[in-house]
Here is the input.
Amino acid sequence: MRRGMLVASIAGLALVAAACTPSVTVENQPLPADGQPSGIAVSGVGKVTGTPDTLTMSFGVRVLADSVSIAVDRAAASAVAVIAALEGSGVASEDIQTTNYAIYPQYDWRNDRQVLLGYEVTNTVTAKIRDIGSAGTTIDAVSTAAGDDVTVSGVSFSIEDNEELLAAARQAAWDDAKTKADQLAELGGVTLGTPVTISESFSSSRPPIAFDDFAVEEAAGLDVITPITPGQQEVAVTVEVQFSIDA
Here is the structure.
């Protein structure tokens, strides 16, 4: 028996098995000259839904000053404060990565001529917050530490502890494919053989969530914790299986 390669990455907490209606083919022919196997080809689908366990956010500082040196020094101090606040909130140092650093002159047009406003320095780090329950407190701590220099550019949720759910989703997809193959074999009056090829793929139904910088800054000035709601994510796993037909 030849085996196909199983390749998958999936996430979720609660399994929802769902059958879809992909195209299927039934063949009962000798192996063709091109070497491609014949038999019963089916698709099986398993769906996994669950609560994300990891939050990824971009924290940064943006400073405008009259000179590059002043802007660099002030941005550096604020960036150090951001990183310290993240680590002080329980974010591991290996989960904090610098993703952007830039220095640009800023101009404005006044009376039909360009006027230098100053020099802007931006420094951004991406952090993975693995304790989503503390995410709001972490955001507020960073906002307080960096003050008016703080920036927050985005939010995305993911499920990284997914081994058990991956196995469950794969099982559901396999059961779906096998049920279809058994029915097709019965309808065709043939005996279903062993799997000849197996492949797996997945797709996520939820894109990253946009996040408003100003919402964080406004919340930081109040005696409340910024609310973070991870919601649910769904990933569909598809298993493509080709079974042989026993004589």
About this structure: The helical segments are 68-88, 135-146, 163-188, 213-220. Residues 163-188 form the longest helix (26 residues).
